[in-house]
């Protein structure tokens, strides 16, 4: 069975059109200490289960998306545009 992702711009597409680019984590401010930047760049919690990742629709609209999924079962709970997601959290 093909794994499908529903892009908010392009509709339901095969996952091969996307690049998974890592967990959604808060970016430190420019004035944060080196330790905060080290953690942001290199340290990951690597949780098992449901969490959010950045996906890039490389073979489609080329937008950055936030995919909320279970990394154990690959069940997808929701896909939003990353910019809209960021603006919604402000
Ligand atoms: Zn798309």
From TrEMBL:
GO terms for molecular function: sarcosine oxidase activity. It is an enzyme of class 1 (oxidoreductase). Pfam families: SoxD. The keyword Oxidoreductase applies. The keyword Transport does not apply. GO terms for biological process: tetrahydrofolate metabolic process. Its EC number is 1.5.3.1. Keywords: Oxidoreductase. Gene3D superfamilies: Folate-binding superfamily (3.30.2270.10). This is Sarcosine oxidase subunit delta. It comes from Rhizobium soli.
């Amino acid at each position: 069975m093909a794994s499908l992702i529903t892009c908010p711009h392009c509709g339901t597409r095969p996952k091969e059109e996307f690049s998974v680019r890592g967990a959604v984590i808060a970016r430190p401010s420019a004035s944060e200490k080196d330790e905060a930047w080290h953690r942001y760049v290199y340290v990951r919690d690597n949780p098992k289960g449901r969490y959010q990742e950045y996906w890039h629709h490389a073979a489609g609209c080329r937008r950055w998306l936030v995919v909320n999924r279970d990394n154990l079962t690959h069940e997808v709970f929701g896909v939003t545009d990353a910019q809209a997601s960021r603006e919604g959290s402000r």
